[in-house]
Every structure is written in structure tokens, then in C-alpha cells.
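Page 47, continued from p. 46.
Same chain as before, 494 aa.
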Amino acid sequence: MKVTMFDLGTPIRTGDAKPDSRPDSAGRRLVQRFARGLSIVTALAVAATGISPSATVPAYAQDQSTRGLPIIRDTEIEQLLRDYAEPILRAAGLGKQNVKVVILNDRSFNAFVMDGRHIFVNAGALFESKTPNEIIGIIAHETGHLAGGHLLRLREQLATAQTASVVALLLGIGAAVAGARSGSGGNVGAAAIMAPQSAINRSLLAYVRTQEDQADHAGVKFLTATHQSARGMLDLFKRLSNESLFNSRFIDPYLQTHPLPADRVAALEQIAKASPYFGVKDSAALQARHDMMRAKLSGFMDRPGTVARRYPLSDQSLPARYARAISVYRNGDLRQAIAQIDGLIHAQPENPYFYELKGQALLEGGRPAEAVAPLRRAVHLSHNAPLIQILLAQALIATDQNKVADEAVNLLRAALMREPDAPEAYAQLAMAYGRKGDIAHADLAAAQAAFARGDLKTARQLATRAKTRLAIGSPAWVRADDIVNVRPNANARR
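Result:
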């Protein structure tokens, strides 16, 4: 399991202007206050297309100085989430849109959409969901946002709000000037600006609350169409409602991005129980995979003491043994970890992820030559999963044997066909080409790695050098030339 950074582009920074002694500085400060207020509600509305239980702005929206989001990449978990999502996406008419479920390394409970191609789910939501049906319900809700075109409609609402805000701003400035001339000071202008802003904010938030209600209804519709229960979604929202019920007693319902918990649960319960599939339960096999996912997340993310309490030695179930083996390897006892992982392999000799774990433990423990065999087995059993191919190539390269460079190159090129934006794969490819003495392609791969990381300056430098060694007009030369000539703002958007 790996954590990488997903670049969301250059952050927007806002701040107070320096004090100004000129006559119109008070008016400018009013404008700045208004602009900051609008930017806050805009961020709030954009962040709202999710299921955050407390209806607060997620941290990624609050802290605009953070350029990227930490993403967990893991073949086992991603395959499980694909299996959860595919029937829902097909029912929503999005089966061919290549929508991906992305896992964020965040222990808080949240899920959201930010574009038409990704559903973001926090690791905390995966860990806290006790059944597959609960996570499937989350995915169904977020798919409701995608299928309803809520992001596009929200942008239209924001554009309308901005137009109304400009008009209100101009009217407010006029009132401020009139107040200044009459000697009443800046309070009249401030009130004239902030009052319509408050009305605009409330209108936007009411619109977002409507979208949340529509996404709940759509989610139940998709679950019913796939003969699945909405009980998991309902149970989950009930738990979240109980956790935030006390706080919600003191909340202004018109300043929330999501419907209040009790109201939302009541509405959801009515439509969920009307489904003929409300009593359908998850299969035992799917529940077992879900339990393994939660154990894996605990092993990688929790402290050893937490893992020991959550999965004590008295628990000899496969998920408990999985979590303990990962925790032991992550905390330095490689010998004991390998013994425990071998026990897992003995229990399920056709499980590719146990071999992957053994290979990763050996590789990170400084024994790459021993990691090759289990990773080869993991690649075979996983039907050439690209992330495991990359790990095998890394082990081959780490053996410092030039004879395996060709195999590493072939593995990485195959993996990049399905993971074209993986910086680590390009970095390993650069090293593999270096082992072969192919400096031109090593430079190109290093340039592609820098480009995938968002380091355009380094990418251009390496691509320029690669062009001098590559045959003019060759496919590799063209790729290098593309990097050299890319516009900086294009990479920022990327």
C-alpha cells in the first residue's frame, strides 16, 4: 500500500490589504471584506457535494495552502471498491465514463466528488463502515451527485451568485459613498454590502441542501436497480446522526450545506424501506473481503498498540492475522512478520495480496533478491495488476543485476499502459534504462516522472537533454518534445 500526492493545482491565496491612509481606503476594505465572504461561501458550496456528517467544510477546502491530497494506492482495496462501484455506475448510466473511486489518507469520515471522473472516499469512511453495503451506499449517494449533474449546476449557481454579488457590491459602495458625504460613516455602506451577501449565501446553501436530498434519493434508486439494500446507507446515516445530534440542536438549519441529521434520516428511512430489496444482505464472501480491507487499513495506519487492542492474539480470524502481520512488518520486526505472512499464505495459497505483502516487506527490509519470487507470484495471481508489476520491477532493479533490466523495463512499460500518471513507475523506468546504458530513454523517463509530479522545470530540462540523444521524429523524441513545449498553466491544471 502506497501513499502518493495528488496535485490539485495552484492554490488561491487571500489576505488583508495593508493599511491605506488614502480617502478611499475604507471603501476598499469593505470590498475586501465582501470578497472574502463570497470566497468562503463559494468554497463551502463547492465542498458540499459529499456526505460529511457534521456539515462542516472539509479540511482540504479550508486550508488552501495545501497543494495536494495524500492518496492511498492499493490493488486489493481498489479492486474491492471497483466491484462495489461498477453496478451502481452502470445503473446510473455512467458505466462507460471511467469514473474512479480514489482513497484519501484521512481518518475522518467523509466522501465527496469534485469533478465528473472521481469519487473521493476517506480511509476513515472505509474503516468505520462495518459492512460492504454501507460503503456501497456512500458510493451510490456520490454517484447521485454525478448523475444529477450537480457539479455543473452548482457552478452555474455560483456564477449567478457572483453576478448578484457584484450588483450588491456596487450598490453597497454607492451607499458607503453617500454615507461618507452625509457624515454617517462607513457603517451604512458595510450594512448595505453585507446584508445582500448574507441572503446570497443562504440561497446558495439552500440549493446545496436540495442537491444532497436529491443525491440520497438517487442513491436509493441505484441500489434498488441493482437489487441491493439501502439499509447500509440508512444505518450509516443513523450512526452519524446520533454522533452529531446534540450539536445539531444549536445549529441554524439555514446555514448548513447538508440537511440536518434527524430530517435527513427520516426522509431516507421512508424511501429506503419502500424498496423491495431492503432486507437483502451482503454475501459472506463480500463481507470477508470488506473485513480484510478494514484489517489492512488498520495494520498500515494504526499504531501497534491500537492494532493489538483491535485485533488481540485471541482473535485468530484471517483479518486479525492480516492486521497483526502488517503491523509487525511496519514496525521493524521483519523475521516475525515474514513468519506471520507465510502463515497467511499457507491459509490462502492463491491470494495474490499475501505474496505482495511478503515481497513488499522483504524489499523494504533491504532484501530485494528474496522479494522477487513472491512478487512474481503476486503478479501472476493478480493477472498482471500494474501496481504490483511496478513493485516487482523495483525489486528487480534493487538487486543491482544488469541482466534483469530488460524484464524491469517490460514490466514498467506494461504497467504504464494502465497507470500513465504514476511518477514512481517513470522513476523506476529511468533507473532500468540506466542499468541498460540507454541514457536517452533514461532521461526521457526521468522527465516524465518529473512531469507527473508537477515539476515542469525539471521535466523540461531532462526532456531537452533527451532530445539531443534521440532520433529526430521518433516516438520517444516526440514525447520529449511535447514535454519541452508544454505550457506551464497546462501542467498546473493537470
